[in-house]
Amino acid sequence: MKQTLSLRPAGSAPASATRSKRAISASRLDRIHDLAREQRRYPSEAETVLAAALAEAFPTLLFKRKAVAGSVIADFQCRQRPLVLMLTSDSANADPALADRADRQLAEQKLTVLRFDPEAVVADVAAVIEQVRAAVTALTRPPRPVRAPRAFARPQRR
Fold first, then answer.
1. Cβ neighbours of residue 44 under 8 Å, at least 6 residues apart?
2. Which residues form the DUF559 domain (predicted)?
């Protein structure tokens, strides 16, 4: 029998259209996690220097190295603040279009991205820490005002 094209009713949509725009398949997400795990095993010199400096400068904040955020592997992600640190080099193999796409994906997740050159991190880690400190301060919510305890007076029964 010959098949013909038919129109779907307006209310129904194909299964692929109902998925979110940035949905990642389970197999791709597994590959991303495996790649991040492999990168965690062999840190670069800049990652080692920055990790030690972050741990010393921010003892109350946890920066996870090579954290997966969506389909992006962030070099450092702060768990207490919406902050991501990326080490990018200006070498020939670094594609600025990929970096822009990663920044957009992280911004969709409401994460602030700071990018640093690995050579600059090794050369002057104190300047990098000051930039991170400024970002952490900007992302810190002001403390909630302490409310005076309420006096709950029960109405007198007559």
1. 87, 118
2. 32-135
Please say whether the beta carbons of 44 and 118 come within 8 A. yes
Residue 59 lies in a domain: yes
Helix, strand, coil share of the chain (percent; to 5) = 40, 15, 40
The β-bridge partners of 52 are none
> Which amino acid makes up residue 27?
S
Nearest Cα neighbor of 110 from 75, 65, 144, 77 is 77
Residue 121: exposed, middle, or buried by beta-carbon count in 10 A (0-12, 13-18, 19+)?
Answer: buried
Task: Kindly report the pTM of this predicted structure.
Answer: 0.71
- Residue 101, domain CATH: 3.40.960.10
How many domains, in total, are found in the chain? 1
Residue 54 lies in a domain: yes
- In this predicted model, what pLDDT tens digit does every residue of 5-51 receive, in sequence order? 455 565 555 554 444 556 788 888 999 999 999 999 999 999 999 99
6's enclosing H/E stretch is none
Asked whether residue 34 is assigned to any structural domain, the reply reads no
